[in-house]
Amino acid sequence: MVKKKKKKRKGINKVVKIMVFSDLFLNSGWGLIGPILAIFIVNNIQGGNARVVGIAVGIYLLVKSVLQIPIAHYLDLNHGEKDDYYALFIGTLLTAITPIIFIFATISWHIYIAQVIHALGMAMAIPSWSAIFTRHIEKRREAFCWSLDSSALGLGAGITGIIGGTVAQSFGFIPLFIGVSVFNVIAALLFLFIMKDILPKTSRQRVFLLPKT
């Protein structure tokens, strides 16, 4: 009997690897302050209380949820990945501004403005990241690639959440905010390693605001 050769599983391609690493840095950065941001607002912002914390969280979620739908729709109207790539890169960089604003924030409106900027950045980054990631997943490795990203996020945010609380207790919040910004910048810069893998695939990119009828 002739033994059947076992098919080797395909490895994870470069684009997917870089995007997982970028997602790891982005979410690990926010993991540093996510669990303790409410404490910062209450203790360091003039008039900071539970209501301000709730409004800040609500602003981020509402703005992100409202903006990412039209942004995603616009990205889908264009051909190729050029628009997705630029939206991803710029959106990720925008998120690095928010923790810097936190450093200088003194009143609730500063926090609200920072949350709007963060929401705008994520509204650009999430749809474009998902689009590029989905297109570059190896066939029959979809479940593994998505679970790899999910596990990386959970491990990164979990570890940095523990670190963040310890650092805040010992050194205050400023080192944490700087750390979040640095992590977010690294997350954006990682996309430069896949620029050549994405941009050449865009031949004629037609830009329009409304779908053809």
Span from first to last CA?
60 Å
Structural class: mainly alpha
Instruction: Assess the beta-strand content as a share of residues.
Output: under 5%
Quaternary structure annotation? single chain
Q: Output the CATH topology.
A: Growth Hormone, Chain: A
Calculate Rg over CA atoms.
Answer: 20 Å
* Backbone shape: globular
By CATH, the architecture is named Up-down Bundle
The overall pLDDT average reads: 88
Q: What is the CATH superfamily label?
A: MFS general substrate transporter like domains
Counted beta strands: 0
Proportion of residues in helical segments: over 70%
Which stretches of 5+ consecutive residues score pLDDT under 50?
203-213
Q: What is the tally of helical segments?
A: 9
Number of domains: 1
Biggest sheet architecture: none
Write the element-wise H/E pattern from the N-terminal end onward.
Answer: HHHHHHHHH
Q: Determine and state the CATH class.
A: Mainly Alpha
Please provide a written account of the structure.
Helix content is 73%, strand content 0%. The chain has one domain (25-195): Growth Hormone, Chain: A (Up-down Bundle), CATH 1.20.1250. The longest helix has 30 residues, at 142-171. It contains nine helices and no strands. Mean pLDDT is 88; it is low at 203-213. Helix 4 (82-95) runs antiparallel to helix 8 (174-189). By secondary structure, the protein is an all-alpha fold.
List the topology elements.
Elements: H1 14-31, H2 37-44, H3 50-77, H4 82-95, H5 97-104, H6 108-136, H7 142-171, H8 174-189, H9 195-198
Helix pairs in contact: 1-7, 1-8, 3-6, 4-6, 4-8, 5-6, 5-8
